[in-house]
Amino acid sequence: MRHRGGNLSLIVGGSIILGVLLFVALGPLVSGYEVDQLDMRNRLQLPSSEHWLGTDNFGRDLWTRMAVGARVSIAIALSSVGIAVVVGSVVGLVSGYFGGWLDLVIMRIVDVFLGFPPIVLALAIVAALGPGVVNLSLSLAAVFWTEYARVVRSVTLAQREADYVTSAVALGASNARILFREILPNVFGPVIVLATLGLGTAIIAESGLSFLGFGVEPPTPTWGWTLAYGTRYLRAAPWLSTVAGLAIMITVLGFNLFGDGLRDYLDPRGVARRVRRTSRT
Amino acid sequence: MAAYVLRRLALFVPMMIGIVAVTFGIMQLLPGDPAAVLLGEDASEEAVREMRRALGLDRPWWMRLASYYADLFRGEMGDSYFQNQPVANAIAQRLVPTLEVAFVALLISIVLGVALGIAAAVRRGGLVDAASMLFAQLGVSMPVFWFGILLMYLFAIQLDLLPSIGRGPPLLFAFGQALAGRPAALGESLMHIAMPALTLGLTNAAVISRLVRSSMLETLGQDFVRTANAKGLRPARVVFVHALRNALLPVVSVIGLRFGALLGGAVLTESIFGWPGLGQLAVSAISQRDIPLVQGIVLTFAVAFAIVNLVVDLLYAVIDPRVRLE
User: How far is B14 from chain A (nearest CA, A)?
Assistant: First the structure.
């Protein structure tokens, strides 16, 4: 039962992700419009055979803008989660493996980061660094890394005492070799599951920051920006923000289902789930 | 028990010191000079220098950090740059509205989440289960503020049933009035809080429903439930009296941890609905580079989060004595 459930989630989630990638790759080619092609006579048009998702307030084709904007949204998600995975994993490995006062200090630092409301921390960092794709990714990574540090630490703690590690130590393996060759492979499962779910969280977080006016600056049409921007035309053109919101929801749903499905294969003991449940993003 | 509380409180102090330091560090990176912003574009260099001295910005960073710690130790958070009042006052005015909406949201999410979770577990594999879990998946996949905007579009713009922005009379006050036989204020208050609270509670309801479902399924498979069923107890009694109490144990601790997400979500929700709370204040303080105010708000959020978690842990220790011995 559980196994079949996992399979279904994987298939549905994977299909959604594949669909989104196809849309991103082919969307702008098949629409016949440029991202910033203005057409003031056709502003705020409803979806039609000319403009499949309608137009925005400058008459730009929404289908094209969604497809192009997705690249930036997904790039931000991938890079923020990527940074968080690398930093969190290294910190977690070191903390769990060496233990003692180092572990104590690192875990208190993790607690400090967990003590912030996530969006406030991200906001403050974006405000400090300034807008832009790279800074946005860094600020989100600053929120996300604690999750990976905690998971990797807990796996490392458990593996440190395992017989194969003891024998590696007895054979005279260096700390680096034990950490990266012996222990690291064990954390791949939970980390991949967490990262898949994290991609969805990142896309949502980007849209939230855009809504508050701290996202990527125009003319980059990220999904979050289109959604936030569409709310200004809620009365005249409610589909603007609806389309952007649906795009975000469907994509995040894809990542969430895929992540849930992966969990049954890669993390049967549920390490990722325990941490994820308590996470605050 | 007392030792457990003390140990928890002791852990809290270094965390606060760290949070202050990290916030302070981020604020140092902020571009722009608050003194120049305060005085406007026409200010002379002399005046800006004078203002920097008045704000204490001319001192090195470590002295400012140290004096901030000293202020905190005396129970002071300094004065806001732009609000013309002490940070503590500015926060105090905004804290109650935020707690109000967070509390109602928590209530909504617990009721909704537990109900859906139980329904899904009891009807495992059926239509109710599928529908609840679809709700749960969509709930965590949706940007919270988008859900708020959809609600606003439907109930305020299209149906014109609820006010789209602003806060009614304070909820506690309105509640007192209603008890005294004047329910008008409570109605007004609830009309205003309905959409913000539902928006804020949605993700939480989704998370809780999944958790209750899995916890309930686990409990329903245990021997004591089989025994209760075998004794011929009514199914409702088995579910609600025997199983639910045990199934809710893990949920309690998660609800506490989710409170932080709720406070964070308040930042977005308050911006949509023009709710005069801490979240909105945080956004404007960060935009204005009002460093003392940002520090104060972050600390307040962190303290609120830590207190809720402490209470939850204590509750948990009362319910489940094994925790105390860890």
Answer: 8
